[in-house]
Amino acid sequence: LLVTQGTAIPCILETAMSSDVPGFVSCIVLRDVLSDSGHVVLMEKGTQIVGEYRGQVRKGSKRMFVLWTRAKTPTGVIVALASPATDALGRAGFDGEIDTHFWERFGAALLLSIVSDAAAIGRQQLEDTDIEIRNTSGAANTAAGIAVERSIDIPPTLNKNQGERVNIFVARDLDFSSVYDLKRIESRSRILDRTVQGTEIGVAPPSRVTKP
Q1: Are residues 74 and 174 in the same domain?
Q2: Which terminus of the chain has a lower count of CB atoms within 10 Å, N or C?
Q3: What distances in angstroms separate CA 121 from CA 23, 109, 124, 129, 130, one per listed residue?
């Protein structure tokens, strides 16, 4: 009764994400997740997966790391995952729409630079106010430098919409043996055949998972 390491579980995001601040994220599993043997359903379609992300996308990066922490099946079984998120192609982390905050980072500096250039032009045209305009130009340059220093370190923001398909990459074997018991179920016709003939016939009956 194992979901083995390396299994990829597809799911659909329930929540939108923004890397501006750390937060939680959830998704819904798209299909039944079978045991390693392929015969037993361990996590039903509709299982809710919860994870968390720490925010702050690094400069030059276009992906955000997400860790899936818990799964809750429709029947109420809760499983600890501690497994990373991947995109639909299996690449680690999530991509999304990147906001570089260009105007927040450089807008004030550009505006102050324009003011500085205007002051320089005025200085050339009005020689009699040379000292006053030079001081204004110097102040504008200083203010522009301060604005750049304060805003240049604003990190980019990654936004990802709900409804997108993502994956859970199972990082360790998930053992359901403490949650489920296997019981062998026989069809009514098989029981009648055995009663009449006194022997078992046909193939072995399928296994079914039941809660203890």
Answers
A1: yes
A2: C
A3: 50, 18, 5, 12, 11
**Total number of domains in the chain:** 3
Residue in the block written with tokens 């029947």: 75
pTM for the full predicted model = 0.66
CA proximity to 140, closest of 160, 116, 163: 116
Give the range of the structural domain holding residue 43, as residue numbers without chain letter: 2-97+159-179
Assigned token pair, 198: 């006194």
For residue 47, what pLDDT is reported? 96
- Report which of 119, 154, 151, 147 is spatially closest to residue 134, judged by C-alpha positions: 119
75 with 14, same domain: the answer is: yes
Burial of 172-192, coded b for 16+ CB within 10 Å and e otherwise, reads eebebeebbeeeeeeeeeeee
Query: Do both 111 and 138 map to the same domain?
Result: yes
* pLDDT beneath 50, residues of the chain: 133, 191, 194-196, 198-208, 210
Judge if 173 and 83 occupy the same domain: yes
Task: Give Cβ neighbours of residue 12 (< 8 Å, ≥ 6 apart).
Answer: 27, 28, 30, 163, 164, 165, 166
